[in-house]
Design a protein that fits this description.
The complex is a heterodimer of chains A (about 230) and B (about 700). Chain A contains six helices and nine strands. By secondary structure, chain A is an alpha/beta fold. Chain B folds into five domains: about 280 residues, P-loop containing nucleotide triphosphate hydrolases (Rossmann fold, 3-Layer(aba) Sandwich), CATH 3.40.50; about 110 residues, Elongation Factor Tu (Ef-tu), domain 3, CATH 2.40.30; about 70 residues, Alpha-Beta Plaits, CATH 3.30.70.870; about 110 residues, Ribosomal Protein S5, domain 2 (2-Layer Sandwich), CATH 3.30.230.10; about 80 residues, Alpha-Beta Plaits.
Chain lengths: ~230, ~700
């Protein structure tokens, strides 16, 4: 398989298109799950998909080290190359390296002003102009609504595709009217798309469920390979 | 010596330049009665401190090589491995970190945590070295141990907990208060030899109570027994000591001590802490590589009865020949034993076994597991592993990175010429990443290594230690060439100009090969090239690899297959087929889209966050690929991959960009294709240089 077939076949493309297949360039999305179900694995796949579509991705990792984050990319890319029998693997790896920038922050040290400063640095110094921003490990419980509103403004101003991940707690059952669970139930209006990772079926495999989507794709489900965590059509 | 392995400490003393490492070592040797007078580092008395046995180090006031020295303190045997604080001498630092079990991290009470400390600390974390911190120079104006402790927590992310407080600071520093025993300790006499232990002065009571509570809080996390005792208000110094030891060994706590080596305050109590809180050899897991099992990791036992495994970590040219420092990881090393070098497979006899005290020595008969001693007259290279022959373990990998930078050196006179060869011979043995050869064309001596500073240090050492002064050429990056596609060749070498002629025809193809340098495939059938000339073809191809036709750089990653050819009964010869192969290679090579490859360095720049943009910009300008950044408190680390050729002079640029607040380290990462426009420039420059010769 060639790179362009992979991009064409990737079910994640639904997140960069509306339901009629028109590209959506700017969107703020949220991936939610309980601990240990593979949020980072999914975010990395979304980032890789974006890179292979010719974009530049800024991956912000809160509370994880640079090496660990890089290892996620290496592992998942390795799995994709293996699972899809990708012929131009070396070229793809090179493309990923050149078009990805990882920034890590300690917990409690990441906020909008800091992100804005970093983004400005990158753009001003002509180092990197991201099209897609991944924020893994953002603490929704400790963030006021205003903080997220500002984040949304920044995203809109810079015309970015953004993905956040959020951690769910088993015992917290609060939910918004559109079905977005806590801790994001009060800020769900700020997101265009909200996706949950949840168990599905008798032999519980994991799947991605679109809970909310302004592009009209709410209710859609994507399956996850139980071994590699790669996203596939349900 | 002590045979009791639990009473052996192999420690490193590691620090930023000028935080007083050498002075501290000197004091330790004095109090352990290894030396009988105190000298200063930049000594006016011309003797100088003991550990800096290398002239260059004396002059610069820095420590480059890791000499080991032995001393005893309160029935514990302490081997001090002098650890270089410079990251550029990677092999040296790594070897030193491997042989030590614990470390004392010295910090200046005024300067605090500087970027070098950050790097050293990171390396220690990588090698799982438990450490205690010693805040030195508390006698200096501006001393602030509390601020340094806070920096240890913020910048180094260590769980730093003071277990001592200073009595007075700056010029008024009188002694220390031990928070474990709750006593005040004074160091009296001209050289601080007389220790007076007293009750804590009344005006320190509040500060001490507060600090002790903080310490007990932190330490009791590691011992349930202590936790209970603290709640009941009855913790004993033994309980606290045990908990501190446990926490330190698990790398979860760094006890902080204070003092001033220069003013002879707090050194003896530091030695007590080394005995009490740093590990003995059996408490550390060390791993060897099993050469019979594809370099799989095996844990070494530390048992003196097991087969011997020992690492030669440092060579020195002594007055009586080569001195080899070894650390035993298991088994016992005895005088008169026959041991095996696992790299060369050679047998060596242990003639003389000595314990080193910097540059003086003491003869011994045996050395137990975990100990550090020196051997005399054993021929080996640094990094070699010795075994009893029953196991084929190696303590270090056999893979040595190829040098990435080279310099031409020319001795200034005849005397220097002779000394230079002696020096080079020694350096190449000491350091496998340092290579030397003579360029056939220019007859210049070329030295090559892993970075600019790496070579600088050797040039300096040549001058100081061997009296070999040399002039140095501009540094050259070690480019390589390779091909990117398959191409056919069919070449006939024919020469008939009187006498016997030459004839050979070679046909086949070249193709890229991902791993490896060169492979020769003989696909000749029916004897179109006779057997005896096949190897001539191989030889011819290998000769072609030495200099590629793009920029005369070595060619790598090529597989050559020959599948046809012809010969002449009289005119074909070894030489004829070699020449035919050379011609054939040239023909195929140009068609196979050759490209230039350059060494890429992994560069890591550390500095205050406000400079992150500037740092990234500077790397970007150097064709760098930024891999990521990590931010912690007000500090940021930018990781990037940058071509070596763009890194010359970077330290100056970085210094001026960041007001000297950022530092960088770099190591070789890989070879990568040079972008077309840049390659064009390099090739043109080389052509021009050749014409001018």
């Amino acid at each position: 398989m060639k790179k362009k077939d992979l991009v064409e076949k990737n079910p994640l493309k639904m997140f960069v298109q509306d339901k009629d297949g028109n590209p959506v360039n700017q969107r703020m999305s949220l991936l939610m799950s309980r601990a240990g179900l593979g949020k980072t694995a999914i975010l990395v796949q979304i980032a890789l998909d974006s890179i292979l579509r010719g974009n530049k991705v800024l991956h912000v990792s809160v509370g994880q080290s640079l090496d660990k984050t890089r290892a996620w990319y290496d592992d998942i890319l390795h799995d994709i190359v293996g699972a899809m029998g990708l012929e131009d693997g070396a070229e793809v790896k090179e493309q990923v390296m050149r078009n990805r920038l990882i920034m890590t922050f300690k917990e409690a040290e990441f906020n909008r002003p800091k992100l804005e400063e970093r983004l400005n640095d990158l753009v001003y110094q002509n180092v990197f102009r991201p099209d897609c921003l991944i924020v893994d490990g953002f603490d929704f419980e400790q963030t006021e609504r205003q903080g997220l509103v500002e984040m949304r403004e920044l995203v809109d101003a810079m015309e970015l595709q953004v993905w956040f991940s959020a951690l769910l707690h088993r015992e917290d059952h609060r939910e918004s009217s559109s079905g977005v669970p806590a801790p994001c139930h009060e800020v769900d209006d700020l997101f265009d798309t909200v996706v949950l990772i949840q168990p599905q079926g008798e032999k519980p495999n994991l799947c991605l469920k679109v809970v909310k989507d302004n592009g009209g794709q709410a209710g859609k489900i994507l399956a996850l390979d139980p071994v590699t965590y790669l996203v596939k059509e349900a | 010596m002590s045979n009791d392995i639990e009473k052996v400490r192999n420690i490193g003393i590691s620090a930023h330049i000028d935080s007083g490492k050498t002075t501290l070592t000197e004091r330790i040797l004095y109090y352990t009665q290894r030396i009988h007078a105190i000298h200063e580092v930049r000594g006016k008395d011309g003797v100088g401190a003991k550990m800096d046995s290398m002239e260059l180090e004396k002059e610069r006031g820095i420590t480059i090589a890791s000499a080991a020295t032995y001393c005893t303190w309160k029935d514990h045997a302490i081997n001090i491995i002098d650890t270089p604080g410079h990251v550029d001498f990677t092999i040296e630092v790594e070897r030193a970190l491997r042989v030590l079990d614990g470390a004392v991290l010295i910090l200046c009470s005024v300067g605090g945590v500087q970027s070098q400390s950050i790097t050293v600390n990171r390396q220690m974390t990588r090698y799982n070295v438990p450490r205690i911190a010693f805040i030195n120079k508390c006698d200096r104006t501006g001393a602030n141990p509390a601020r340094v402790t806070a920096q240890l927590r913020d910048k180094l992310a260590l769980n730093a907990v003071p277990i001592q407080l200073p009595i007075g600071l700056e010029a008024d520093m009188l002694g220390i208060i031990d928070l474990v025993t709750m006593k005040a300790v004074y160091f009296e006499g001209d050289n601080g030899d007389d220790i007076r232990i007293e009750e804590i002065p009344a005006d320190y009571k509040d500060a001490v109570d507060e600090a002790r509570e903080v310490m007990l809080d932190a330490v009791s996390m590691f011992s349930d027994e202590l936790m209970e005792a603290v709640l009941e208000g009855t913790p004993t110094p033994e309980m606290i000591g045990e908990a501190i030891r446990k926490a330190t060994l698990s790398l979860e706590l760094t006890p902080v001590l204070v003092g001033s080596a220069y003013k002879n305050k707090g050194v003896q109590t530091l030695l007590d802490a080394v005995n009490a809180y740093l590990p003995c050899p059996t408490e550390v897991n060390n791993f060897a590589l099993d050469l019979k099992n594809n370099e799989a990791e095996v844990k070494v036992s530390n048992d003196p009865k097991d087969p011997l495994v020992a690492l030669a970590f440092k060579l020195e040219d002594g007055r009586y020949g080569q001195l080899t420092y070894v650390r035993t990881y298991q088994g016992t090393l005895k005088k008169g034993d026959t041991i095996y070098n696992s790299r060369t497979g050679k047998k060596v006899k242990v003639g003389r076994l000595v314990r080193m005290h910097s540059d003086e020595m003491e003869d011994i008969d045996t050395s137990g597991s975990g100990d550090i001693v020196a051997l005399f007259g054993v021929d080996c290279a640094s990094g070699d592993t010795f075994t009893s022959g029953d196991v084929s373990y190696s303590m270090s990998s056999m893979h040595i990175p190829a040098p990435v930078i080279s310099l031409a050196i020319v001795p200034i006179d005849n005397k220097a010429q002779g000394n230079m060869s002696k020096a080079l011979n020694r350096f190449t043995k000491e350091d496998p990443t340092f290579k030397t050869y003579v360029d056939d064309e220019t007859s210049e001596t070329i030295i090559s290594g892993m970075g600019e500073l790496h070579l600088d240090v050797y040039v300096e050492r040549m001058k100081r230690e061997y009296g070999a002064e040399v002039t140095v050429g501009a540094p050259q990056v070690a480019y390589r060439e390779t091909i990117t596609q398959r191409a056919e060749f069919d070449y006939t070498h024919k020469k008939q100009t009187g006498g016997s002629g030459q004839f050979g025809r070679v046909s086949g193809f070249v193709e890229p090969m991902e791993d490896g340098v060169y492979e020769f495939v003989d696909a000749i059938v029916g004897g179109v090239i006779p057997r005896e000339f096949i190897s001539s073809c191989d030889k011819g191809f290998q000769k072609s690899l030495v200099k590629g036709s793009l920029a005369e750089a070595p060619v790598t990653g090529v597989r050559v297959t020959i599948n046809d050819g012809s010969f002449h009964a009289v005119d074909s010869s070894d030489v004829a087929f070699q020449l035919a192969a050379i011609g054939a290679f040239r023909q195929g090579y140009l068609k196979a889209s050759p490209v230039l490859m350059e060494p890429i360095m992994k560069v890591s720049v550390e500095g205050p966050t406000e400079f992150q943009g500037a740092i990234m910009g500077s790397l970007n300008q150097r064709r760098g690929m930024i891999l990521g950044t990590s931010e912690e408190a007000n500090y940021t680390v930018v990781d990037a991959e940058v071509p070596l050729s763009e890194m010359f002079g970077y330290s100056t640029v970085l210094r001026s960009l960041t007001q000297g607040k950022a530092e960088f380290t770099m190591e070789f990462a890989t070879y990568r294709q040079v972008p077309k426009n840049v390659a064009e420039e390099i090739i043109q420059a080389r052509l021009k240089a050749k014409k001018n010769k």
